[in-house]
Write a structure and sequence with these properties.
- The chain has about 260 residues and is of the alpha+beta class.
- The protein has 5 helices and 13 strands.
- The chain folds into 2 domains: about 80 residues, no CATH class; about 160 residues, Gamma Fibrinogen, chain A, domain 1 (Gamma Fibrinogen, Chain A, domain 1), CATH 3.90.215.10.
- Strands 3, 4, 5, 6, 7, 8, 9, 10, 11, 12 and 13 form an 11-stranded antiparallel sheet that branches. Strands 1-2 form a two-stranded antiparallel ribbon.
- The relative contact order is 0.11.
- InterPro entries: Fibrinogen-like_C (IPR036056), Fibrinogen_a/b/g_C_1 (IPR014716), Fibrinogen_a/b/g_C_dom (IPR002181).
- Pfam families: Fibrinogen_C (PF00147).
- This is Fibrinogen C domain-containing protein 1.
């Protein structure tokens, strides 16, 4: 007698579950299946078989057990996704807000997946979103990042970190943001540069920039020079012996950006 194909065998079991009888036909031969028993509902099915041509039923039982476990894992995954979506849907659309400090999940329409951001307060106010942090004696930013690290980000919130230009563009495109750059040199002298509005283009450079304020002595340079300076500071490896922190924050200012890249 020819071997019974597995798909034929599974078809037989489907027939038996739907309308069990005493005989079925396989490969043109009648086979007695009266020894096959069903107990309880579809969710608790037990079967025994004494068909001579089927020497081992354990393989099918393993398949059924595996599929049951897989279905349970899929249900757990779906449940987790629903929980994540619920969390994201309740996330404040203003990103960091209400002077909360810590990590926050953010979902923006420009990006396919949610991502985490770090919210901070400092002497310049609250609700700042950390986009970059470099130590005086940097380990992470010793050379140009380039490639995936520049676009996707690198590092950790509790250490040296850069959010990546993909997220940076998505954030500044989704709402008007102000920019704060805080620098501490090796003598612990602190400088800040604040821009009322900022946005970044596809070339990973500043495309919009608003009014500038600083505690530096000379503030007479134009915003084009500032835009170039920001582009360089976001490289993070160009300024030795300097700790740099760069922040964004949603701004309610209605003033249009003063600088616009050509």
């Amino acid at each position: 007698m020819e071997p019974i194909a597995i798909d034929t065998l599974l078809t037989v079991f489907n027939i038996m579950v739907a309308s069990p009888g005493s005989n079925i036909q396989l490969n043109s031969q009648d086979i007695d299946v009266s020894s096959l028993m069903r107990f309880g509902g579809d969710d608790n099915l037990q079967q025994t078989c004494e068909i001579q041509e089927i020497s081992n039923l354990s393989g099918i039982n393993d398949v059924v057990e595996f599929q049951t476990k897989a279905n349970k894992q899929l249900e757990d995954i779906i449940s987790d996704i629903k929980a994540i979506n619920t969390h994201i849907s309740t996330t404040n659309s203003n990103l960091c807000s209400q002077r909360k400090v810590g990590e926050l999940a953010v979902k923006l329409p420009q990006l396919p997946r949610p991502f985490s951001v770090r919210c901070d307060n400092n002497q310049y106010g609250g609700d700042w979103l950390l986009i970059a942090h470099r130590y005086v004696s940097t380990v992470l930013f010793r050379s140009d990042l380039g490639g995936d690290s520049e676009n996707n980000g690198i590092g950790e919130f509790h250490g040296e970190y850069f959010i990546g230009f993909d997220k940076l563009r998505a954030i500044t495109d989704s709402q008007m943001c102000e920019l704060l750059i805080v620098e501490n040199d090796e003598r612990q002298k602190q400088w800040y540069d604040h821009y009322q509005t900022v946005a970044f283009g596809a070339n990973n450079k500043v495309k919009l920039l608003g009014k500038h304020s600083t505690n530096r002595g000379d503030n007479s340079v134009g915003l084009l020079v500032h835009a170039e300076a920001i582009n360089k500071k976001l490289k993070l490896y160009l300024y030795p012996n300097t700790e740099i922190k760069i922040y964004l924050r949603k701004t309610s200012l209605n003033e249009p950006p003063i600088f616009k890249a050509a």
